[in-house]
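3.2 Worked example (two chains)
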Amino acid sequence: MTAHFAADPAATGAAVFPARPEWLTLSAAFADEVPVIADRDDLVVSVAPGAGGGAPACFYPHRALIEVDGDHLGVDLATVDPANLSDRARYAPAWGALTHECGHAKHTAWEPPDGAPPAVVAAAMLLEEPRMEAAHIRRRPDDRHWLRACVQGIVATDLHLYADPATAPKMTAADAARTAALLLGRADGGVLSHAEVYPVARAVEGVLGKEVLGKLLAVWRQALRTADDAGEQMLDLGRQWCEILGTDPDSTDSASPPASPGTSDPSDGAPGPGAPVNPSPLTDAIAAVLGSVAANVAGEKAPEDPAAVAAAAKECEDAAARKAARVALGVFSMGGAPDGDTLTAGTRPPTPEEHTAARVLARALDTAGTRERVAVRSTSQVPPGRLRMRGVRAAEAQHAAGAVVTAEPFTRTIRKPVPVPPLRVGIACDVSGSMGWARAHVASAAWILANAARHTRVPADTASVIFGHHVRPLTHPGKLLAEVTEFCSRDNYEDIPRALDALDGALGLSRPGAARLVVIVSDGEYRATPRRHGQKKLDRLRASGCAVLWLTTSHTDTPLAGATVHVLTDPTTAARAIGHAATTALRATARR
């Protein structure tokens, strides 16, 4: 029988009523969280120094009581706030012990019958440990972290690792088998990793031999697949365990073997708890594994409160939106920085071909935004509509009973128009020295898109910028330019993060509720800092649902990750590629 599961009906808790009021307060706070973890609302929790019956925690099923040893808390109890998931990491071993006992409360739904052979019961309860934890993390995967956090205390107690050097595991079949069930079984159950328990696996195999260990492994893996209430099956597995080890089923639990040469009693001046005297190789392996797991848990990120995570994400998103708005104000209202090499090169009248392309794109956007009417079925008490006899009978019954008639026997189907989703498109063109090929084509495409947006029934906003050392506007949101704005291409720096912020702040590209597209025309040859920050901006836009199109002319170029790359074999088709991407984005949103 494990030290932290008191199946005896006569067993009582060691500290049901803590003496100090602050422990009562903490016990109540722990108890408030238990119903969610254990899926039970009848459990009582007692947290106090010395509770747990010598283990970090203990579950008394006949009293629906969980005790947690307050000595394992490790922090000032006045600062403990278990309702805050982020606070639990400060006392992870104690919270893990509570979680372990909650797992027993939920999943150990069987009891050994009276008269069952003691060794069989002990083996079955030993197998129950990894079985229960595996069942618990299938139901609550995030609790794996807390179960790992308490492994050192729970397993060390079950194996009598530190309490008394005389009872520490020896190089015997019984101790090796017990160790295998508690540690290798947890690895197969998913709480620990096989790499973490490898030192114990090697030591156990050295004691038991490969054949015996293989037979035991088959038994505990069968236990992992056993249902919570399959007590007879667990006892049968316990019998198999005893047969494999040659244990007399009627013998008492051999969890605490007698002292053997090479150990000493703490009372004779030898080192006390935590320092076994002349430890066996098996003890060394167990201690190494438990220490390694504890170190790994300390470096892992604990589960976080979803509400806190959502609040932090919202604050981060709000901050990014505020920054984008400031950048957009500086670029579109003030024209960007007052000096620098990122320059426009005057304007020119649009060509007849550009006028035609704008009208064609406007019609394409209208077509893409057209949505079929949605059929809506409604009922009423009076015509028009199809008469349903079931509704008539219901109305007659209500009338005969003197009740208010609520039946609606007439049904009809009407088709309602669905609002067309708006469209937001931003264009950002790199104006470094290697992008000379894009100047005329992007200037033309920006004008065509802005002109098309002004002549379509689809609510549309567009804007375009150039980016080099600075970011400057080509077309403004909601404004129709009579002429095409041209620009230079001679910068040696690419401020793509600021360009994406400017378009986002001006058009709301990161806000849902519209078909959104950002087009980047660039070869992607950036310095490390703008590339890293630009990738973060692009990832944020994509996560919000904004489509990203990257136009380039060579397969050897290096776009940012996540963009849909389109290689222009003919740069004069840039406007056509942008228009096609805009209509595709609009159709995708319309289908939703």
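3.2.1 Second chain
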Amino acid sequence: MPDRSLVLLSSSVFTGRSDKPFCGYVAISGNRIESVGPADEAADYLAAADEVRDLGAKTVMAGLVDVHTFFTGWVLRRIGADLSSAASAEDVAAALSRWKKSRPQAPMALGMNLPDDLLGDGLDAVLDDRFSSTPAVAFTTGAETCAINASASERYGFTPKACYAEMIWRLMRDYLPLQEVRDAYGDYMAMLNSRGVTAIKEMCFDDYYGFADEMARREQEGELTLRVDMMSQPVGSGADLAYARSARERFQGDFVRFSGFNRMTDRGVWCGLAEMVEPYEAGADAGAAGKTVVEEPEWDLISSELTAIDAAGFRYSLHCQGDGAVRKVVDLYDQLPRDGEGKLARRHSITDLENSDPVDLERFGAMGGICEVYPQILTLDAREDCLSMMRRQIGEARLAHSWNRRGMVDAGCTLCCGTDLPLLIPNLGDSIYGACGGYFADGLDVNPQNTVSVAELLRAWTFGGAYDLVREDDFGTLEAGKFADICVLDRDVFAVDPKDARDIQVALTVIDGRIVYEA
């Protein structure tokens, strides 16, 4: 069968190569973009097309690239017995028993949506009694805390107060092989496609505990509607270069690649657990007052891993939230080999950058640094709920250096966008609202001098992400010869005030020339 052809017409075509959209067309042949141009040059392509879509003023752009996602966390909120209607510890135990009985291959009993008011020693005791030799874990909504029996505590090594992703890796080994988890990857892709996402950088703990086989199977069977760049996040042991080499060799297709490693350094400024250049304020929380750091990151390990990772030709993404952590990572990157233009030979990146000193952004930009930011993060809170904590920790002057996407762009860093999914779900409207308007959930703004333009944000979501994945020759802009990975929004986003952007929706998503989502 010959390649099918599709032409998209719009008065708002944003190629990503300039700052303004234009009235034009995108012609697709098979899985590639055949031509992009002004509307008055579309006649030949329209005459030959199998299908033409006149999209009016809807913005046509490259598909979105989310550079920080966790399928392992997303699926954990969707598997296990649904405990939302449980009214007692006995209800919880009965629901877990039914779930386990229907899944004899599962080595544990798992639950989700546990009501917070059932947490406590009473529930733990019931789980110990009913599941004496079987690990039992019941997560609250969002999986931020849980009830856990003694058998699970012994097997998995985490507690209700420390059950975040980096702590529950032993549990991942038990739930990732479940067939319902593997089946859920289809729902995961469909959800992301409905948000205009066509490529992701997926954080895969250690060696992904066998789930890489599912990725290989789906690519071989042609089932993937996302391009996936896998990054290993070491938690069970240090960075495994032997696994990385085998994964890089195994995954070289158009849809699945492996490119390196991801690691946390510090934690949030707002809770006093970030590493800062100057000491925390006198009224800071978490025992941080007068200190620059409460929990020292593993800098010696990070430094030695970075040297080995870089020498082996892999990338390292380091997650930093305080300006002190950002500075130390820039110092580490500054010691690495450069190319002929003085840029880092490998595309190492810094993720989050909740607070950063402009001097360090300038240094990072000069070496070709990549900043992976969360453009929607402000939408999680009302302004004063967040800023009152930040002021208490670091004071007003340093607060002005928070969420400084403007400084990153002006310093020459490549800006790209992530969500830390499932912390956030990709939403371009929320991204414009937060990163271009600087608005919190309640509509009040912060640091308007640190915001970016709509064009800069769209470029970060597209070209910046493709560059971060070392795939900018394949996708990320609307150009002839690139894969036909395209997002169509439900209006001309360049005509929308950022404060009114939150209800922007995706109208159409195309990947590899196939329409995979249509509103």
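3.3 Remarks
DSSP finds 16 helices and 20 strands in the chain.
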